[in-house]
Amino acid sequence: SSYVRIAQIPGIGRLVWNTTVLVSGASVAVLVFSFMISLIVTRTRLRVRGFIDGIAMLPHAFPSIGFGLALLIVALVFRKYFPSAPFYGTVGIIALAHVLTRISYGTRATNAALLQISSELEEIAYVCGANQLNVWLRVILPTCKRSLVFLFLWTALLSFREVTMALILAGPDNQVLSTYVFTT
């Protein structure tokens, strides 16, 4: 059957491993960076918060193929000056491309989740003696947990099916399932 033939594909273990690393790594990174940016944008009074929010939305204006090509050029220049540093031809470069292109979507989801949480909840926790870390871990994160799970799953699915950037950045050692399906 077809499923038996999938197991017989040469290098299927490496393909599955690379795809798993890409999907989980990019999703976790988008989740963490989006949450940190959204905390700054929604919970602080810093003057640069609007600028930070604008920078986070900037990747939305560029096509994925442009990010792939730009990262390919950066990786080649990086490889020229730092030949021992592994970046070109790794799953990390594909994951970085996915993180950069998904951060704008991630910040929109986390901004919406954080804006729905009243600052009075934080104030109550502070009055009860909680420090900043406990407020984040015991009040904010549990309250917006569903949005964060959605963001993780959504980013994982988008990273799993994205083929454009992966094709541009793919090499012999960093093939993922989407590039394998496209090239065969």
Account of the protein in words:
The chain is mainly α and 184 residues long. It is built from ten helices and no strands. The two termini are 18 Å apart.
Radius of gyration, Cα only, in angstroms?
20 Å
**Strand-pairing-aware structural class:** mainly alpha
Poorly predicted sequence stretches spanning 5 or more consecutive residues: none
Global mean pLDDT = 91
Approximately how much helix is present in the residues? Answer: over 70%
Helical segment count: 10
Keywords:
single chain, 184 residues, 77% helix, mainly alpha, 10 helices, elongated
At a glance:
With 184 residues, this protein is mainly alpha-helical. Helices cover 77% and strands 0% of the residues. It is elongated, with a radius of gyration of 20 Å.
Blueprint of the fold:
Blueprint: H1 2-7, H2 12-43, H3 49-57, H4 64-81, H5 91-115, H6 119-127, H7 132-143, H8 145-161, H9 164-169, H10 177-183
Helix pairs in contact: 2-3, 2-5, 2-8, 4-5, 5-8, 6-7
